[in-house]
Amino acid sequence: MASRTSKFLIGLFVMAGSFIVAVIIIWVGAADFFLKGSTYVTYFDESVQGLQADSAVKYRGVDVGKVRSIRVAPDDRLIEVTMKIDLSSDLQHQTEAQLRTAGITGIVFVELDRIRPDEKSTSPEITFKPSYPVIPSRRSEISRILAGTNEIMESIQAIDFEGLSEQLKNTTLAVENFIGGKQTHGVMTNLESTTANIDRAMEGLRVTMENLQSFSERIKENPSELFFNRPPPPKKIME
């Protein structure tokens, strides 16, 4: 009797567990089925590692939908992300999608934001017919940083360092030849001669200025020297 009771309880427990699992599956599926909004699709030309079905779709940080499916696009190049979004704005012409990471958790979600008119579009070209309305995408911040780094590295690799080194050597040799050449020696000799002449001229000018100063002092003391070789005789005192 006890054995039958035990088997009955085990069977009842299994049935109850199965029923609960079935209810959960039905509830999750129904919740997704009855999720409000419209279905859209976006295409990324980069890795979507970390993004999964049921990942959040946010508009400037506010939850507006979920990712329904992720698969490789028909062109075998892009990644197709199908989303159900509850947002009434014109998503195809006013918004763009971008992959984002939530803090340090590493959880990836799709962020929707207004299209920036002053920024060049990076949405990939679509060469096939999509199943749903397309929201243009924008490369993620990490992808753009990596692309910029690659461009910098390519620019550095394109620099002809060997040619620059050779030009620098030739320029240095030309300067050395110019400084040690005969023309430079002649220029330096002429410069020294000119400097000596300037020194002599300055000395002559100094002597001339001293003579003029002396003459000026003499004229001030005795103006008659300007007209006479000797000063006039002193006048006699009238008696």
Description:
This protein has 239 residues and is an alpha+beta fold. It folds into 2 domains: 35-153, no CATH class; 162-230. It is 48% helix and 19% strand. Strands 1-4-3-2-6-5 form a 6-stranded mixed β-sheet. It is rod-shaped and about 150 Å long. The N and C termini lie far apart (183 Å).
Features:
48% helix; 6-stranded mixed beta sheet; 239 residues; alpha+beta; rod-shaped
In short:
The protein folds into 2 domains: about 35-155, no CATH class; about 160-230.
Sheet with the most strands, sense and barrel status: 6 strands, mixed
Radius of gyration: 49 Å
Morphology call: rod-shaped
* SS field, number of helical segments: 5
Question: Mean pLDDT, rounded to whole units?
Answer: 75
The spatial strand order of the largest sheet comes to 1-4-3-2-6-5
Structurally, how many domains make up the residues?
A: 2
> End-to-end span in angstroms?
183 Å
Order of helices and strands: HEEEEHEEHHH
**Total strands:** 6
- Percent helix: 40-55%
Query: Low-confidence parts, pLDDT < 50 over ≥5 residues?
Result: none
Our estimate of the beta-strand percent is 15-25%
Structural class: alpha+beta
Secondary structure elements and pairings:
Layout: H1 2-33, E1 38-44, E2 56-59, E3 62-72, E4 79-85, H2 91-94, E5 95-102, E6 107-114, H3 141-158, H4 161-180, H5 182-221
Parallel strand pairs: 2-6
Antiparallel strand pairs: 1-4, 2-3, 3-4, 5-6
